[in-house]
Specification:
The structure is a homodimer of 561-residue chains. Chain A is built from 15 helices and 31 strands. Chain A has 561 residues and is of the alpha/beta class. In chain A, helix 1 runs parallel beside helix 8.
Chain lengths: 561, 561
């Protein structure tokens, strides 16, 4: 059995190592086009920012380790330039010697990854414009930035990089890598502008959650130019760059980072005549087998089923890539492992804040035409409010109306964010409902959580809605209801809702006569907890009432921009 | 419908508030013996330590709030001194006026909590010996400690508390409250000794995990006297105390904290003739109904089913108490809610370390005579090793051999501990197997986790064992196997295992001839990862081999003390 693995990072490397553990006799050849295998590409922005000081820290494993420990014929700077599925051969080009050889395989595993998108815009190949995919990419960016710091003539260098004034970076793309780059460039002292074609950063978030990220970025000095596509790049007289946008703006830049997104590397798959999916990734079955039964594919290059929606999706994440690599090794070794799909769990840290998400978001469900879902906004504390240092977590929970199944969650905050998303991710994986979340028994001590954890609230509030105890509405669809604000007057002095009647909660039972019986009463408070109590009082006194989810706190999310 | 709720903290307060939300018309009377309702007893040690500065921070809700917002007749300093289940009445004693009145109920809810155990030892009532249960307890302890600081005569005060030398505290009991108190007293500048009857602190942990906690405590200056019961207390000539132990020791003390454990308050239940369970708690059904169908009981006073083992257990935790209170409100309001049992999820922070656990531990399973389980020791990083600041997490995972069901987990470390236990707690709740954990999709970015999260490892390693890929053994049962250490020589120079043959992993394939074919080879490395690779090589070359779980790292846990 000879297995050739194309691509030596994440999925490919995981597959190779596990295959050797399962089959000591298999002949395994792993080829990698670049100079390194098994490197930490998720760490590249942090290396550029100087948080990860040494480039060598990024090299998780080496060619030598694969040879010595796993007895794998591991070749870097070696590219597959041809595939013949009929003959079951690949053409390998050694980029050091230039030699091309032919190798036979019994099973072929494609783990080519995804390439940063470089649209064919005018000037895109100008010096100073970089993508962030490989260790050499990171090295070039570091060198480009540091070049300007090495002397102090006060002039631009020949590369156009200024030597003694604040350097300006434009990051094109407001996704995970774009924002991690933005933060890391700020840490290096650059002035950073993020140009994003969409009207929000971080596409995995719904827009109202992204608004909070945008404000946090701006607070830390990042300029945002949303809703504006790049039309081209220009070199100015002093050698620096300008990023031109469709709206006619010109953003000056000493360095440009392209982080528009990635596109599955399907060149080899197409060469082999393999089926490509509707999203542009290699189509595979649950065992990661392509349309050719002897060729498997894993990682950023393949389409996988979204665990929640059942839709094909492209997910460029290291976790799923590693799992897929292991599954292919199992299958090649004769086991029946299956990939269960992805739920898109992801996290990013930006200027001290954590933003994480799992499962489906509202945008996606709406795009798919689904109606059987509801959402709530919650603002729990990261830990017991009476213990110092508690921070508010902004939590959006999406669940199925018909059966309470948890569909997705998005969370942001300064503390305790990703642990709630991890618990919710586990819940989604196991098919949990919001009724299960109500009963979850999680770690509680004052520095860590609350007796009712945010994860419990993510169950209790939706369950209150589904049981009919708390009819819900949202600021985006008030439908002409009668607005009742049950906060206390000092809170209204800070911010109030025009047209809302104020009856503080403790006075409500005595003042029911002031409320209309022929209109639906929409109840407002700070976070929707007191409004829930008020809604209960109103409903049981024969009023029609709904709670405005998230209260004034969700209103301020929607109001931003 | 008139409902009387006895006890206004956690379970009682939750029940009262939810019952009002569900039933605006019910007549609800909540009585609390102490001066406060709904206070944060979990915060008491931190208030004593000064972390939570203001006593008022501990008061989560007040009598006034219950009256004004929930229209609940809430009475503090009011104790139930008699119950007549036949007449459905209780005798209430007002501790302010001394008046005793009789109140009728339709439904009675008992939430009396559990009382700190005060064994009838000689001297237990001496001044300077305190329990930590209520806000007044905490106040008395603070005052006792601060009394010595208020002047500087260099003498003992009349209470025996020294004024200008380091004060000495003895904490009796090494459970959660005892250790939280120990840390907080150290923070206040006291010399602290913990006396514990068992041979370990923190009973929810298995002893080898507790060893690490003990070393951490000692590193931070806490003296431990394990395996030694207290026999009495004595006042010395200078007015200070001595804690006398069964082994004949005398620990000098200026203050003694009793944190031996708690005992369910079953006085009222016994007075009402209610069934008491075998563990000494009030016996209830899944709807928290006692043997009298009109009387419910919740919180620390009741026995509940352990979710994992099915055994009756006493769990003094705020989370389950709150959930039980809600369930009783549901049931009284005519709903069919059921308590699913407890899994004992708990966490404690001690001197910067976090220790957390969920589900069953090995001690318990062994005591129950269960054989269908296995354990693994893991030492994953809190986040990607290539990102600065990663800390080792010590993780013990217990799973069922027959079907892979996750049974329990214990974790310790300086970072990222409780979030893994939360994810595993959710997994246990949902009946997950280690095969599910392998596929878990959790948050990964370099500052937060790894592409293979510790939770994934908690699945992959057990699954390797269950699939037969990695036969396992433990340091405690080497059964005369042949010891093979596959680490590199520099690692052996630091610490080696007597009698083990060293063949570094990369040389193993070439040196198989040095190994016996007639004996089982037990493979050692640092954390058991390389040993796993070696085990695979050996098994596939016809050797009998097992991996020693946790390698040198678990050996050092067991070797401590």
């Amino acid at each position: 059995m000879k297995v050739i693995i194309v691509g030596g990072v994440a999925g490919g490397a995981s597959c190779a190592a596990r295959l050797r553990r399962l089959d000591e006799k298999a002949e395994i050849l792993m080829v990698e086009r670049g100079p390194y295998v098994s490197y930490a590409n998720c760490g590249l922005p942090y290396h550029i920012g100087g948080v990860i000081e040494k480039e060598s820290s990024l090299l998780v494993s080496t060619e030598q380790t694969f040879r010595a420990v796993f007895a794998i014929d591991c070749r870097t700077r070696c590219e597959v330039v041809g595939i013949s599925p009929k003959k079951k051969t690949v053409e390998l080009k050694n980029h050091v010697t230039g030699a091309v050889t032919t190798e036979k395989y019994d099973r072929l595993v494609l783990s080519p990854g995804a390439a940063p998108i470089r649209p064919p815009l005018p000037g895109i190949d100008l010096p100073g414009i970089f993508s962030v995919r490989t260790v050499p990419d990171a090295r070039e960016i570091r060198e480009w930035i540091e070049r300007g710091s090495s002397d102090s003539t006060g002039e631009h260098t020949s590369s156009g990089f200024p030597l003694d004034k604040t350097k300006r970076a434009v990051v094109v793309g407001g996704g995970y890598i774009g924002l991690e780059m933005a933060e890391n460039l700020v840490h290096r002292g650059l002035e950073v502008t993020v140009v994003e074609m969409l009207d929000q950063v971080m596409a995995p978030l719904d827009p109202e959650c992204a608004r909070l990220v945008e404000r946090h970025l701006e607070k830390h000095g990042v300029r945002l130019a949303l809703n504006d596509g790049v039309s081209g790049f220009k070199q100015t007289a002093d050698g620096s760059l300008e990023v031109l946008t469709k709206s006619g703006k010109a953003h000056p830049a000493d360095i440009v980072i392209l982080a528009i997104g990635v596109r599955p590397e399907t060149g080899l798959a197409k060469m082999a005549g393999l089926e490509i999916g509707q999203r542009g990734g290699i189509r595979v079955d649950e065992q990661m087998r392509t349309s050719d039964p002897d060729i498997f594919a894993v990682g950023d290059a393949v389409e996988v089923k979204d665990f929640v929606t059942g839709e094909w999706s492209l997910i460029a994440l290291a976790g799923p890539a590693n799992r897929q690599g292991r599954i292919v090794a199992d299958v090649i070794a004769g086991r029946s492992s299956r990939f269960r799909g992805t739920q898109g769990t992801s996290v990013i840290g930006i200027f001290g804040a954590t933003i994480a998400a799992t499962g489906a978001n509202e945008k996606l469900l709406t795009r798919l035409g689904q109606k059987d879902f509801e959402k709530v906004y919650l603002f729990p504390n990261s830990h017991a409010g009476y213990y110092p240092g508690a921070k508010t977590i902004v939590l959006k929970v999406i669940f199925r109306k018909s059966d309470g199944r948890l569909l997705g969650a998005q969370a942001l905050g300064l503390d305790g964010v990703e642990k709630r998303i991890d618990a919710l991710a586990m819940a989604i994986q196991m098919g949990a409902t919001v009724y299960d979340l109500e009963e979850a028994e999680l770690c509680y001590a004052p520095p860590f959580g609350s007796a009712k954890d945010p994860v419990n609230f993510a169950g209790m509030v939706p369950a209150d809605v589904l049981r009919g105890d708390m009819p819900l509405c949202h600021w985006t669809s008030l439908d002409g209801g009668f607005l009742l604000d049950v906060r206390n007057p000092p809170e209204l002095a800070v911010e109030s809702v025009p047209g809302a009647l104020n009856i503080p909660l403790p006075e409500l039972r005595a003042r029911l006569g002031e409320l209309p019986r022929d209109r639906e009463i929409l109840v407002i408070c700070r976070s929707a907890q007191r409004a829930y109590y008020a809604t209960r009082i109103l409903l049981q006194n024969g009023f029609k009432a709904r709670n405005i989810s998230g209260g004034m706190l969700s209103r301020s999310m929607l109001a931003a921009k």
